[in-house]
Write a structure and sequence with these properties.
The protein is α/β, with parallel strands linked by helices. Helix content is 38%, strand content 16%. Strands 1, 2, 3, 4, 5, 6, 7, 8 and 9 form a nine-stranded mixed beta sheet that branches.
């Protein structure tokens, strides 16, 4: 079964991603993949290099970024309201057409020019304005739906899922599940599949890839420690057997898709994609 990495960070996710684009594309080719999405944090800095080099290798480039979504008005430089589950949330945006790419450019620019407060943030108002031609993924543990699920606030998570499904339209919004060996992911996965059943939304499994190979894990920990001002001993991901944010291979990810599928009763027809079912125009 073919699949595509839809949640990938390059070195343009500054002090977070360690994937250099030429090496990443070489790895994609070596693994026999024909497509790849780049979803850097809040920016499209690597989009042109990624597109040009992917095209030269006959790899389909899916352009996108992982947006920072403010809880409230993007213009406000203050703490979010008490009911918000965090200072901001993550949302993966992928272009499915030329219009979608133009909207990515708009949203990324607005994040830096109008919404910058520690992070280049957008808000719901501009997301609604520029949602055309885009596919949305619910993102990682820092996604809005996941944040509510981690709090045990299922109704708020459900309201968020309904909102995003309305913004992106039919088949435009996908619930996202990941398995990097973290306890909270089990809670979120269960909640995502409950939402999928109740709301009829599709589900995609992704790997939050930040570096290429197992042997890159320690260097990536050093990069994160620099970016967060922490000691190596305090990093969330430690070098070990899981190597949770490495650029994984097909057998690993297809096995993960099979595992998360067990959350669904056999009678349901909820769609599960092992990173492949999102088709761009």
């Amino acid at each position: 079964m073919a699949f595509v990495h839809l949640h990938t960070h390059s070195e343009y996710s500054l002090l977070d991603g360690a994937n250099r684009i030429p090496e990443l594309l070489d790895r994609v080719q070596a693994l026999g993949m024909d497509s790849l999405a780049i979803t850097d944090h809040g920016n499209l800095h690597g989009a042109w290099q990624f597109y040009a080099e992917a095209r030269a290798r006959k790899i389909r480039a899916i352009l996108g970024f992982e947006a920072y979504l403010a809880f409230g008005d993007r213009h406000k430089r203050e703490r979010p309201p008490p009911e918000a589950p965090g200072p901001y949330s993550h949302l993966v945006l992928l272009a499915r057409s030329r219009t979608g790419y133009e909207h990515l450019v708009k949203l990324s620019s607005i994040g830096f020019l109008e919404g910058f407060y520690r992070r280049p943030r957008i808000d719901r108002e501009v997301l609604e304005r520029y949602s055309g031609g885009l596919i949305g993924l619910a993102a990682c543990l820092s996604g809005e739906i996941a944040l509510y699920l981690r709090q045990g606030n299922y109704e708020a998570a459900k309201a968020s899922a309904q909102y995003f499904a309305g913004v992106f339209g039919p088949d435009g919004f996908w619930l996202e599940v990941q398995d990097h060996g973290l306890a909270d992911e089990k809670t979120v996965t269960a909640g995502m599949f409950r939402l999928a059943q109740e709301l009829g939304l599709p589900v995609v499994t992704t790997n939050d890839a930040h570096y290429l190979r197992k042997e890159d894990a320690e260097a990536h920990d050093v990069l994160l420690a620099i970016g967060t001002g922490k000691l190596l001993s305090g990093m969330l991901y430690q070098v070990g057997a899981l190597d949770p944010v490495a650029f994984s291979t097909a057998p690993i990810l297809l096995a993960a898709a099979t595992l998360v599928a067990t959350w669904l009763p056999a009678r349901r027809a909820t769609r599960i994609s092992p990173m492949a079912a999102l088709r761009t125009e």
